[in-house]
Amino acid sequence: MLLVPFIDALSAALPPGRIVLDADVIGAYARDQAAWAPAGTPVALVKPQDAEQVRAVVAACAEHGVPIVPRGAGTGLSGGANAVDGCVLLALDGMDRILEIDPAEQLAVVQPGVINDHLRAAAAGHGLWYPPDPASSPWSTIGGNTATNAGGVCCVKYGVTRDYVLGMKVVTGRGELITLGRRTRKGVAGYDLAGLFVGSEGTLGVITEITVRLLRLPAAPPKTVVGAFDSLVAAGEGVAAVARAGITPSALELVDRYCLRAVDDWKNMGLADLGDVLLLGRIDTGDESEAAALQACFDAAGAVFSTRSTDAEEAEALFAARRLAYPALERLGPVLTEDVCVPRGLVPEMLARIEAHAKAHDVHIANIAHAGDGNLHPLIVVPAGDEEARERAQQAFESILDDAVALGGTVTGEHGVGLLKKRGMRAELGEDVLALHRAIKSALDPAGIFNPGKVI
Amino acid sequence: MLLVPFIDALSAALPPGRIVLDADVIGAYARDQAAWAPAGTPVALVKPQDAEQVRAVVAACAEHGVPIVPRGAGTGLSGGANAVDGCVLLALDGMDRILEIDPAEQLAVVQPGVINDHLRAAAAGHGLWYPPDPASSPWSTIGGNTATNAGGVCCVKYGVTRDYVLGMKVVTGRGELITLGRRTRKGVAGYDLAGLFVGSEGTLGVITEITVRLLRLPAAPPKTVVGAFDSLVAAGEGVAAVARAGITPSALELVDRYCLRAVDDWKNMGLADLGDVLLLGRIDTGDESEAAALQACFDAAGAVFSTRSTDAEEAEALFAARRLAYPALERLGPVLTEDVCVPRGLVPEMLARIEAHAKAHDVHIANIAHAGDGNLHPLIVVPAGDEEARERAQQAFESILDDAVALGGTVTGEHGVGLLKKRGMRAELGEDVLALHRAIKSALDPAGIFNPGKVI
């Protein structure tokens, strides 16, 4: 690739001010939040304002064989948005308009750069709700959420991003701006290509608009139910008891002793005094008896302490341990974030294996989990600058992925494959299924320009 | 293709008794319930017992260039399972074992020939529920439901087949038996290929096993709420009022005067005396106030009569009009079944256009609708043997498809494209999107042996 003719072509195709060549500015866009994943050196950062500009960028890149790495807010945790050498970083955060909220049809149409919390706030203005709630929701974009099929806390009851995306516009590898999916509640005309793009991590095309389904805002304020347990296994039993009882909480989170101590050290909240492991459940039906039943499950599973909120403020306060856990751990050193998901009955077994790997590899592993889904986030923390510890952490990371697969689970429940899970995904899917991935990638991106080297 | 060497190869690859060559027997399998769609002449019917036999059939067909038309129970309404000339009909109805129901994980693993109602009954034995409920549920198979992404009455609250399929095994065009998707609640490792196969109507491979998510059985018996209206538009207003009120019924069906009269003529139920159009709503939360609110919506929209059930038996009886409408109409002559879906706010407009097309083309069009979803089933009825009427019906059929697209809807909400909606789908999706379909079809079925001429 000759850089000058390419930049000239790009400049000719876009209005002034859309291309950034300053290395320092570009550098700030060159990686996501996966601190451990490698990032290459881009040739330019492009900030399109509309789909037509995206199309022009894709056309120029296709013609000159320049790779494109699309990105939203860069809050990903797998390196999916990290630059590859010689790429154009296509920053979609400036395309941030909510184009439509239709209360009668209960849907919204947004540009990809709309921030998750902004959509939630706008929907709330109509008594509506966009459920997917990744922890990054104050910063992450609907485009990024769609590209990674983001999950969150309320998935256990309300599902993931995939369950809310009705349709989208994308720019394909053929340089066409096309519409996939629909606005209607149902539709089976042709293959589910909108669904195929959800979770494809920017490897099949660039999403320029998304139509999402909205729900009515839950009428009742949520209630929080807390159970404290003296071991991970006991907490795992609490999760199993909830499943057996047929209760569907709108959140069922686990926070372990490492996280509780880290929060205590930071905020002096005395959480670790409650017990070794907390389960945090949420009931959003307004049914007090359901909250009581959830608490009874925790008690029956051997909770050493349990309580439930009496008002909305207390409900939120009791969830603080969950919200503060990740930033509290980041204070202790670089965090390598896992994202395995196992059959929920195997949560205690997987947690036991994670503890064993921590010992075997001599690393600290804290655990946050969307326990009700079986989606665990072991957080491997090493002292800053300790290269040996970092090496051991990497080994523990891969061992945990293999165990998740061995237990019939997956190497990524909601964060995506990006760069960090490529080996794990190969182990999970096998060569035949990977061959199908490659065939589809070639069919939709024949020139191989979209986010090369990611996922597959 | 030389027939004898192919049949010899097939015979060598399968145990005795799996291949049927008798033309009369084959003929009974050569078409689905789309009476108006053409069907070709197959060379053989094959009834495999397991995935390995499916793999052997696919390998033999690929080697000899013989098309494969997979089929479940043949209850489809778009001709998707109709034979093409020279094909092998691959009848999967004999692979009908429920392999596993896991109450803790709330999932079932089934062979493709398991009948929908059988799965529902087996799940109910564990207090669990498989929601997708196409009208064909007493006969249709989970494999066919998956291949067509079948809907049903409860979609309005619980979604379609796609929302319950976690994973599957398929035999690909490369002759490999592979596993797609997962058993866990969440998972984003690689492209959503399981989702791509849902609704692909047998054009990408043969599904040999399906893993579906189950819900808890609703605890409360359902309540039925009936509203009778004196026009389609008034009933459409009733639907809009329900949406505005934020009520989520577990069914919201519309049955028009033609259907009511046909049921009355057959069963003498006096339904048409209630009003011209019935809305039938169902509430499954056990909340009597919600049933009352639904009734109030009907009344406020101008219902000339309304009532709600007091017990489970009455609730079921009030739904009789919906259940009996289709067989009652079939008594009157061949039925050409539409399946358009429009934004639900445009249901009155679409119904008005359907009425206009009935007049313009001088045909009878009855209407059943999953009104809460905007999914309408105009049923075009013509006298048996009247070729001119059949011609006019065909014109009305295509005009209705075009109007659905013009209103931002789709030509098929839940029945699939098959043969009957190919032109309509082209009009809906456009050439660029069809090109993507063809690219994906070629990638997964390079020899083009799976259900050729269907969908795309």
TrEMBL record, chains A, B:
Residues 38-217 form the FAD-binding PCMH-type domain. SUPFAM superfamilies: FAD-binding/transporter-associated domain-like, FAD-linked oxidases, C-terminal domain. Its cofactor is FAD. Keywords: FAD, Flavoprotein, Oxidoreductase. The keyword Cell division does not apply. It comes from the Bacteria. This is FAD-binding oxidoreductase. It comes from [Actinomadura] parvosata subsp. kistnae.
